[in-house]
Design a protein that fits this description.
6 helices; three-stranded antiparallel beta sheet; alpha+beta; rod-shaped; 15 strands; 328 residues; seven-stranded mixed beta sheet; Immunoglobulin-like
Length: 328
Amino acid sequence: MTIQSSSLSVEPGQRATDSDLQLSIRSSQGTKRRIFIPDGAELLSVTIDGKAQPIRQEGREVILPLRPGPQTIDVKWRSTDAVRTLTGTPDIDLGGPHVNTSIQMKLGSDRWILWTSGPAMGPAVLFWGVVMVIVLVAIVLGRIHLTPLKTWQWALLGLGLSQVPLLFAGLVVAWFFVLAYRGRGTMPTNALWFNAIQVGLAFMTLLVIGAILTAVQKGLLGWPSMLIAGNQSTAYVFNWYQDRWGEGFPQASVLSVPLIVYRLIMLSWALWLAFASVSWLRWGWQQFSAGGLFRSRQKQSHKGGNRAGKWKNQTEAPASETNDKKSE
């Protein structure tokens, strides 16, 4: 008798956990196979090739009648284990070695996924790699003393903006350095170019405000993007695979907390951002208005006025000479 493949699907709920074990078995003769489900689990049904079987459990043990040839067996049970911070797959035993083992766990959208563990071919939470990059970038930006932000402020700002596209975060960072460059007085002397840059900075400020509001809105009303990937896993459906296994059954687990924890953290970040933005905008206005807001073309119009006056004097001179001749 050979277990050609096994698939375990687990759906933890608020009060209980439903599990579904599917086995593909090939047997050379009629025999029985003993499998073991978790302690305290209630056997719901057993089907062999789609036909329900009147099989009862004896403690953890479930005896499966096998006939010669290939067959598909489906065993379902329910346990009292509810979803918790560290949710793992049930402890079961197929009574011997087996191959081609798949595990699937489904969690609801009301959980914030932090970590996963299990067989090597499975999901991974890639967000923590992004956090490391954000911290390193914040250390570099904090050493550039052109903006009012310190290292920890860059890190907090980056963590909050990690839930929006990278272009938005880059726009916010660029805004600080563009204004710092503007405040150093390195602006063109041409009035047309000066005014064009000022208009561009004002438009860029509006885009930055929109990017920050998008991050706040997604943090307070959206769902966290933890960048979960691996073996066709998604944000709330996790898949593991093990090619060979001996006694027992592979174990997998997911570390998660209620979604309200994420909401509270993002609310705290939004409040901090609101207070910090007051000083940042004050600094931005000082940089934006350094050397004047806009420049007019008064010098050019003044030159034109001198030319007009000179031309007027030249035209009036002959008239005065004519009057003098007449008086003589």
